[in-house]
Amino acid sequence: MVLKWLDDTLDDFRILIGSVGYRLEFFTCEQLRDYLQDNNKDIDIVAFANEHIDFLKSEQQNREPYSRTFRNIRNSLTDYFGRSQISINEIHSNMLYSYERFLKSPRTQIRINQFGNKVTTQEKGLSKGGLHAHMRDLRTLFNEAKRRYNNDELGIFRIKHYPFTRYKVGSPPASKSRSFDVEQVIIIRDTQVPKDSRIELARDLFMLSFYLCGTNAVDFYHATSANVINGRFEYKRSKTQGRRQDEAFISIKIVDEAKPLLEKYLGKLNTRYGAYDYLDYALYKGMKGLREITNLEELTLYWARHTFGTLARNDCRMSVDDIGEALNHIDNGHSTTDIYLAKDWGIVDDVQFQVITLIKHCEPNTIKFFNLNPIDSRKSMRVVTA
């Protein structure tokens, strides 16, 4: 019985090796071993997503914020299939059309919070923009799997299908403005919130991001006193650090408006929250409360960055290039020239000064709170502007 099994296995290996043909000479011993062992093994897209997430979060890549994109894809796929093991062969064009309908529909979502408890929420269906981004990211994950498991040069095609040939992700819908005007920024700044609440965290980090040229929450999370040098906040932007020769380094002046907020949170966020995901969730809940208080229905932390850039351009008339410097963007159009130019942080300071001066010179609207009773007041704290 054992000999028969060995003979059959060897015959299968001989057939596989024969199918390789002339390309056999290009295989290393390890590649041939993996090819013989794994050729007919099913690929679990969830397991691959977990490996890809860990890779992006590794010290080598340092792309933790980007990894959350694929965490969302993984979680959504397990919601759709109702299980945590999914063959990549189940990701086909008909499934994608059905999956799209699922994503556009309201649904109950269960997640595990930082305390290990199940949290049930009611989620709205994705918007056109959200749906496009989600399917684009799923396509990216599928392409990464093909890159891992297929090898054109060696004739290895463990993933033999490509569902996005028939299912088209298409072009993103035109995005509407994601910025506030000066008066709305002042409303956020001056809004009364419950002390030591998630809403206070959301308001404070929004304003701190705005004062410091659109710095992202993940960079505040990782920052320590070592990032404060000679009155400047210096760091490498997590989102693009691993993709730029300058490691996305930026130096921003700590203006008076930012000092108390930076002192309040610097070095404390990563001790209060054991992982950035927990801070991200706290901000998600805090922003939800802040939206209710301010009646700014689309308020998120990222709007601070967009608002800073938009005000700098439209109200302060700063150049696009200078705003790009302040936002720590990559300027692909001038990448060759930039090799020969030293960074001038005075440009960033000028943009920052103009935007914050704009806020200083604008008289804030009077904010009034409706108080039905003490309990309802704490729940809603809605505001109007006079």
From TrEMBL:
GO terms for biological process: DNA integration; DNA recombination. Keywords: DNA recombination, DNA-binding. It comes from Mucilaginibacter pineti. It comes from the Bacteria. GO terms for molecular function: DNA binding. Residues 46-148 form the Phage integrase SAM-like domain. InterPro entries: DNA_brk_join_enz, Integrase-like_cat_sf, Integrase_recombinase_N, SAM-like_dom. This is Phage integrase SAM-like domain-containing protein. The keyword DNA-binding applies.
